[in-house]
Write a structure and sequence with these properties.
By secondary structure, this protein is mainly alpha-helical. 76% of the residues lie in helices and 0% in strands. The N and C termini lie far apart (55 Å).
């Protein structure tokens, strides 16, 4: 098993730089553009991009730029889809299980406006749906873009840096204890990231619901707030 993990890790670390950047940017873009943040792990991939940078495989600046630009452009696409398709977006069957969370997100956006766009960047579900909801609410695009860019820069810097620091730990362990032990530590880091993501997903209802309060639960699902 150790030999297999060693082989997989080596293959990943020796993938072409352009391919690593393409995958990282593509996943972050898709997560934001087509409302699948609760399925596509954009944040996890951005963190792994930081790990690759810390190991010297790709430039850190390139990973940061790719993640931030992909986040801004992906959100902008999601905004335009929401603006042009309106309520038809959230009526997709894929969202049936998330109807209450969407209603709470709409209420959150209605009260906080652009700040909700910034804050929504930090949870997977809101990161996926907030751009479309902002477009549906008729928020002015310059307002959306300003908050979106601020959120993308802050979020991208934090997650990529977190991956970079994790990768530095991986590299130090590899130097001190050898490749096999480093792979084991890498697995622990990945497992910790998975647990962290699961806990965040479970707590997302509280993060929006606690701020939205009980008022949003009484709103009709079809009601659309306005945001300026």
């Amino acid at each position: 098993m150790t030999a297999l993990l060693d082989t997989i890790t080596t293959q990943v670390l020796h993938a072409p730089v352009w391919l690593v950047l393409l995958v990282v940017g593509g996943v972050v873009f898709v997560e934001d553009a087509i409302f699948v943040g609760f399925v596509v792990p954009g944040e996890t991939v951005a963190i792994l991009g930081g790990v690759a940078a810390s190991l010297g495989h790709v430039p850190l600046a390139a990973v940061l730029v790719v993640v931030v630009v992909a986040a801004i452009v992906g959100d902008s696409v999601g905004f335009e889809v929401g603006r042009h398709l309106g309520g038809r977006v959230v009526q997709l069957r894929a969202f049936d299980r998330h109807r209450d969370r969407i209603d709470r997100a709409q209420g959150f956006l209605g009260r906080r406006g652009g700040a909700a766009v910034f804050l929504g960047r930090w949870t997977a579900f809101l990161r996926a749906v907030m751009p479309a909801l902002a477009g549906m609410s008729k928020m002015h695009y310059p307002t959306f873009l300003a908050w979106n860019a601020a959120g993308a820069i802050a979020w991208g810097s934090v997650v990529v840096t977190a991956g970079y620091l994790a990768g530095q730990s991986y590299a130090r362990v590899e130097t001190w204890l050898g490749r096999g032990a480093a792979v084991a530590v890498g697995l622990v880091v990945v497992a910790a990231l998975v647990v962290w993501q699961v806990r965040r997903h479970r707590g997302e209802g509280d993060s929006t619901g606690g701020d939205a309060g009980s008022a949003e639960r009484s709103e009709a699902p079809s009601r659309m707030p306005s945001a300026g």
